Amino acid sequence: EAQVTQNPRYLITVTGKKLTVTCSQNMNHEYMSWYRQDPGLGLRQIYYSMNVEVTDKGDVPEGYKVSRKEKRNFPLILESPSPNQTSLYFCASSPRTSGRRYNEQFFGPGTRLTVL
Amino acid sequence: GQQLNQSPQSMFIQEGEDVSMNCTSSSIFNTWLWYKQDPGEGPVLLIALYKAGELTSNGRLTAQFGITRKDSFLNISASIPSDVGIYFCAGRQNTNAGKSTFGDGTTLTVKP
Known about the structure:
The structure holds 2 protein chains of 2 kinds.
Chain A: E1 4-7, E2 10-13, E3 19-25, E4 31-38, E5 42-51, E6 54-57, E7 65-66, E8 76-78, E9 87-94, E10 106-107, E11 111-115
Parallel strand pairs in A: 2-11
Antiparallel strand pairs in A: 1-3, 3-8, 4-5, 4-9, 5-6, 7-8, 9-10, 9-11
Chain B: E1 5-7, E2 10-14, E3 19-24, E4 31-37, E5 44-49, E6 55-58, E7 61-65, E8 71-76, E9 85-92, E10 101-102, E11 106-111
Parallel strand pairs in B: 2-11
Antiparallel strand pairs in B: 1-3, 3-8, 4-5, 4-9, 6-7, 7-8, 9-10, 9-11
């Protein structure tokens, strides 16, 4: 089944304890992206990747790192989580980095992170 | 960063009613997108618009790309209970292809 998977789905952690949220897609998509969703603020883009080894900042990159060593995986790393990073996180991918199919973003199921 | 102003924030309607929501920006976008998010899930693309003035339908949903390229509208006709969810608009610009800007969402509740 074609899908974007995220792990873990739920995570409660403490301030300063490094964590990684994994994202994997099995559709051979070129483009991948991370968003956070907060009440009343919609979805805000954290980082995106146009291809392997190519990443760039979105609107809210502070406090996050990403890597794209392989096409299928795009992990989100919080080196020193803080309570203001408590949020619902979504990973997304799309087939191309240009043209109309570029806009067909497929979203993962979300990871709910709580930082105490 | 850029902002998309989406309205209304929430709607409570009766089954069978039509729904309209819109999204405006101070910036021009080359692509407008509408997504729906069901409770506990990620957003799903409903409609993509690529040209100013374009009107596109997907079943009971119709979306329009504003002439000024700074706004977009989504209409749902004859609403049904499964239309419940959060609807997001999103915009993309050719000058920064990797970035997506989302509106704050419209939460739709449909009373049977």
